[in-house]
UniProtKB/TrEMBL annotation:
UniProt xrefs under Gene3D superfamilies: 1.10.260.50, Aspartate Aminotransferase, domain 1, Type I PLP-dependent aspartate aminotransferase-like (Major domain)
Cellular location(s): Cytoplasm
Listed GO MF terms: cysteine desulfurase activity
UniProt organism field: Clostridium punense
Assembly notes: Homodimer. Forms a heterotetramer with IscU, interacts with other sulfur acceptors.
Name the record gives this protein: Cysteine desulfurase IscS
Catalytic activity, EC: 2.8.1.7
Assigned protein family: Belongs to the class-V pyridoxal-phosphate-dependent aminotransferase family. NifS/IscS subfamily.
Amino acid sequence: MNKPIYMDYAATTYTKPEVLEEMIPYFTEFYGNPSSVYSISRETKKALDKARMRVAKAINADPNEIYFTGGGSEADNWAIKGIAFAHQNKGNHIITTKIEHHAVLHACEYLEKHGFEVTYLDVDDEGVIRIEDLKNAIKENTILVTIMMANNEIGSIQAVKEIGEICRERKIFFHTDAVQAVGHIPVDVKEMNIDLLSLAAHKFYGPKGVGALYIKKGIKIHNLVHGGGQEKNRRAGTENVAGIVGLGKAIELAVDNMEEHNKTLTYLRDKLMNGLLEIPHTRLNGPKGEKRLPGNVNVCFRFIEGESVLLMLDAMGICASSGSACTSGSLDPSHVLLSIGLPHEIAHGSLRLSLGDGTTEEEVDYVLKTVPSIVQRLRDMSPLYDDFMNKGEN
Ligand SMILES: *Cc1c(COP(=O)(O)O)cnc(C)c1O
């Protein structure tokens, strides 16, 4: 194997050459500060406007509702803390789910230490919230609902439009972390009744460290980053011009090619998923079909550790992940897998393979040839498996 087989697109993607090409002049030629008056700055200012238009178009927003950030985590933190602090006179209750990205969960935990009360909704065994649970959780003092559009670990897609409708009816702000959704599945902030939405370029073939928060016109929100007057006085700091240009180009490409790209991706995903599920004592995590992101595969192999599978896959030139990238290094199993009801020992044996633009059928076939023997080798060394085989325990 020379070139690695990359199956971790949900962690990050490569930057497309067309995207990089549009970015380069903004490092070398048009490097002027967009706030300055001379002509090289007029070019950078125009570039920001163009990128803002492209992002707005991709999610059916207005360009002046788009605010550039330093990525998905910043957008999530801004939305949640900014709404909480700006509206605490109306109430201090926030609703989210147990399967959010840590950028949302940890922002909510921070608010709990500062006088807010947070309800963490359960999900069903496929990783989808029950709409009834949301309705029941809403109280007089609820000011914000923050629920992710699509989950980064198990690919489950929430009924965002319905959630948005409920929030709109009750005049509660609705934020969605759409970092895994934008550029991958159709997103329309108007149709889906979304007030605030987070996105990040590096999840759809743009550069890392740049993202955006959509804030519906007229919404009062506190700043997260204080300083200069950039982004209409709402997000300080000299703009990451080249990054923003890359974001604009990447989102346009992703949305233009979505339908065709997803057909191929769904075919490859299902082939990989069904192949892996033929390995004995293997279960699928997350939903099947429509309610699942087109590029996401997540399975648990009983009796073994996901981390060991990853190391052996790496030795075979395959990049994958177990749990989420942010939790590797800790011994706790993924909070998402625990939330869908898996016991600790099974959640430990998880493997996420996320496919993307560069994935080929040959790669899927190679992975399907490689994984079963890795699983068997690890099971041969596993005392749990030994017990199971000897005693027929379950
Ligand atoms: C990657 C990701 C984030 C964080 O985005 P960064 O750009 O890495 O800060 C947040 N939410 C979800 C669902 C993600 O997948």
